[in-house]
Amino acid sequence: MKRRSLFKVAPILMAAGGLPTLARAQATSSQNEWDVVVVGAGFAGLCAALEAAEKGAKVVLIEKMNRPDGTTIYSSGWIACVGSKFQKDHPDSKEAFFNDMMKLSGYRSDPECIKVYAEEAGDGVDWLASHGTPFYLWENLPAPELSRCLISPGDGITGGSQLVRCVLKALEKKGVPIHYNTKAIELITDDLLNVKGVVCLTKDKRVEYLAKGGVILTTGGYAANQAMVTQFIGPWASRLVLRGSPWITGENITMTQKVMAKLVNLDQFYAGPMTPTGKANPSPLMHAGYGIQVNSQGKRFVEETWLQVPKAKAIAERTPDNISYMLIGQDADKNSNILTNTLTRFRRLGYEVPSGNTIEEVAKKAGVPVNNLLATVKEFNAAVKKGKCKELVPPYSYDEPHALETGPYYMIPAAGGIASTFGGPKINGKAEVVNTENRTIPGLYAAGAAAGGVWYQDDIGGNQLGGCMVFGRVAGRNAALRAKEQN
Ligand SMILES: Cc1cc2nc3c(=O)[nH]c(=O)nc-3n(C[C@H](O)[C@H](O)[C@H](O)COP(=O)(O)OP(=O)(O)OC[C@H]3O[C@@H](n4cnc5c(N)ncnc54)[C@H](O)[C@@H]3O)c2cc1C
C-alpha cells in the first residue's frame, strides 16, 4: 500500500478498532507452535521453562528486553524453605513453616498455595543446587526466619543475578530457546476463552506463539507502572521510590483482563527504605539499635523498631515529601562497624551523607530546621537518661537505647521504596489462573510476582524468590503434562 493511500484508510481503521489495527496492517506476521510458552525471563519464568523442558515439553521462553531484566536481578537472592539438604542440622517442620507464613500474611494468603509452598520449597532449593547454584544457610535468625533462609551469594553481582545466571546455564544445556526483544501483548483464545497462545511483537514483526499445553505468565507485577500503583494502592504510593526494575509494568493485569481472570490483592506490595534517588539501601543501619528517625522538619514520626516494610510505607504515607533521615552518632559503630560500612557502601554508590561534628552542623547540612532537631534530640536524650523512652510519642522501644551524644553525627536519608507487588490474576495450588467464578482458565498459568493470591502484607525473607521457584516449577510441570494430554 502506498503511503498516501494508507493515510486515507487510517481514519476508517481507527474507527473500527484504533491504532493497533493500523500497526497490524503494516507489520509482517508469522506463527509458530510449542507445547509450553513462558512469558517473562525473571526467576519465575526461568524456573518454569526449565521444569517444563525437564518434563519433556517443547518450550520457548519469551522476554521483552534484550536480557532477563526484571526485579530478580536487583534482588538479594534469599530463598526461604525448610527441608532442603542444607538444613539437615536444623530440625523444623513444614507445618510450622506454613503456620508462620499464614500468620505473617494476616491469614490472607491462600492456604492452598502456602501449603504447596511449604511442601515444595526445600525440594526446589535442592533442584537448583543440583543445577550448580551455590547456596549457604543463614543460621538461627530471629523468628520467623530461624534457619529457613538460604542465600545464593553473587560474586560481585546481586544474589538474584546469580540465580538467573545458574538457571540460564541449565536452560542452555537443555537447549531451551529464549526469544529476546519479544513482547507479549495479548492472549490468543478460542470462543470459550480457553487460552491457546500469545501474540507478541518484535521490532518489525507480529508473531503468534501457539501453546498446546499452556501459556505461563511470569511477567512480574506492576511496581514500575505509576498509573497502576496510584489506582490500586493509592495516590500516596505514587511517591514511593522504585527499588526494582523499571520494566515491570503490569502486563499480568492488562493481558489477563480479556479472559476475565480474577484479580486479587492489587493493593498489596513489598516495601523497603531507599535513598530518595533509589541508589542505595539504608535498611541495615536503620535497624542497628542506634539513632532516631526524623522527618524533614526534624521531628520523630515513626517507631524506629518497626520492620522495614511498615517503616517504608510510613515514610511515604506520613511525610509530605517521602523523605526522612536516620540521625545517628559515631557510637553506632559499636554494632559491627555498621556506620562505617554503610558510609563506605554509600560513597561507592556515589552518595555523600550529610555529616557534622554537632547536631546544629548536621541539621544545616541536611537542610532540616536546626531548632526543631535540637529539641527532638534534647527530648530523646532526656528520655534515655530517665529510662522513659517507651513513653515518647511515638514510643522508642529498644531495650537498651543510646543517647545521641557522640559525634560526628550523620543524617542518612531514607525514603519509602516499592520493591514488588503482590497482586495479580489469582492462581490455585496448581498455578492455574482462575476466573471471576473461581473456575480455572484452561491453558493459562502464572507464577512469581505476576500471580496473585500467594503473598499478602509481609513475608518471610526469601518467600518471593521462593514463590517464583515453587510456582514456576508447578506451572511448568502442569503445562507440560497438559501438552501431553492434548496429543
Ligand atoms: C532490592 C530488592 C531486593 C529483593 N530481595 C529479595 C530476596 O532476597 N528474596 C526474595 O524472595 N525476594 C526479594 N525481592 C523480591 C523479588 O526480587 C521479586 O519478587 C522477584 O524477583 C520477582 O520475580 P519474577 O520472576 O516474578 O519477575 P521479574 O524478575 O520482575 O521478571 C519479569 C520478566 O518479565 C519480562 N516481561 C514483562 N512483561 C513482559 C511482556 N509483556 N513480554 C515479555 N516479557 C515481559 C520482564 O522484562 C522481566 O524480565 C527483592 C526485591 C528488590 C527490589
UniProtKB/TrEMBL annotation:
It comes from the Bacteria. The keyword Signal applies. GO terms for molecular function: oxidoreductase activity. Residues 1-25 form the signal peptide. Keywords: FAD, Flavoprotein, Oxidoreductase, Signal. Pfam families: FAD_binding_2. Coiled coil: none annotated. InterPro entries: FAD-dep_OxRdtase_2_FAD-bd (IPR003953), FAD-oxidoreductase_2 (IPR050315), FAD/NAD-bd_sf (IPR036188), Succ_DH/fumarate_Rdtase_cat_sf (IPR027477). Its cofactor is FAD. Residues 35-465 form the FAD-dependent oxidoreductase 2 FAD-binding domain. This is FAD-dependent oxidoreductase. It comes from Turicimonas muris.
